[in-house]
Specification:
It is globular, with a radius of gyration of 14 Å. With 116 residues, the protein is mostly beta strands. β4 and β5 form a beta hairpin. The chain contains one helix and six strands, in the order βαβββββ. It has a four-stranded mixed sheet with strand order 1-5-4-3, with helices on one face. It has one domain.
Length: 116
């Protein structure tokens, strides 16, 4: 971690669907420790625009059921969170899909930068 509110990301994904598709959501985990929403914030706080611009984001809501061993009870399903993200000069928002139920190697999505 860069600090208690920001994950340390080590690279930018070469996969153009990473984070942009519910089928390839960003796995930040944390539900098992009751810090899922905090991990989502830590991840988003680690992103910048492509030239280092600060990003702004807001949660659009939950969507997109996905299979997860860490999901709701015995259902084997969890819901993703969808965030709208932008930066100065972007002109529109990008939607990112985040999974707080499962852990994975985190990178920045294509088109973003990362905080140093």
């Amino acid at each position: 971690m860069l600090d208690k509110n920001t994950f340390l990301l080590t690279g930018i994904s070469a996969d153009s669907t990473y984070g942009y598709s519910p089928k390839n959501a960003i796995k930040v985990g944390g539900v098992d420790q009751s810090i899922g929403p905090l991990n989502e914030q830590r991840y988003l706080n680690a992103l910048t625009g492509p030239a280092g611009e600060p990003v702004w984001f807001h949660r659009e809501g939950s969507c997109c059921p996905v299979e997860s061993d860490n999901g709701f009870g015995l259902t084997g399903m969890a819901m993703l969170d969808e965030y709208a993200v932008t930066w100065a000069g972007k002109g529109d928002t990008l939607n990112l899909y985040i999974n707080m139920y499962d852990y994975g190697k985190m990178k920045a999505p294509a088109g973003f930068g990362i905080k140093k």
